């Protein structure tokens, strides 16, 4: 996760998870409306999780 993404998580959490899917955007938006800190924490967690897709044949 780069510096720009962390800065985006802090300034506007829903925008930082825009590429992670509709559910992530909804959760982060709801948490940001409830309080800024929960939204920031959710955005940082969502952006920090390692998503490795392994396709087995």
Q: What shape does the CA trace take?
A: globular
Rounded to an integer in angstroms, the radius of gyration calculated over CA atoms is: 12 Å
Task: Give the CA-CA distance, first to last residue.
Answer: 30 Å
The number of E-state strands comes to: 0
Which stretches of 5+ consecutive residues score pLDDT under 50? none
Number of individual domains: 1
Largest sheet, if any?
Answer: none
Strand content: under 5%
| Average residue-wise pLDDT | 87
Q: Helix segment count?
A: 4
Classify the secondary structure makeup into a structural class. mainly alpha
SSE string, helices as H and strands as E: HHHH
Measured as a percent range, the helix fraction is: 55-70%
Explained architecture:
- The chain is built from four helices and no strands.
- The chain is mostly helical and 57 residues long.
- The mean pLDDT is 87.
- Helices cover 68% and strands 0% of the residues.
- The chain has one domain.
Short description:
This protein is mainly α. Helix content is 68%, strand content 0%. The protein contains 4 helices and no strands.
Topology:
Blueprint: H1 3-11, H2 13-16, H3 22-34, H4 36-48
Provide key terms for this protein.
4 helices
């Amino acid at each position: 996760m780069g510096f720009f993404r962390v800065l985006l998580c802090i300034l506007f959490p829903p925008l930082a998870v825009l590429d992670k899917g509709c559910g992530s955007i909804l959760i982060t938006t709801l948490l940001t409306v409830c309080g800024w800190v929960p939204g920031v924490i959710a955005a940082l967690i969502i952006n920090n999780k390692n998503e490795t897709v392994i396709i087995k044949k």
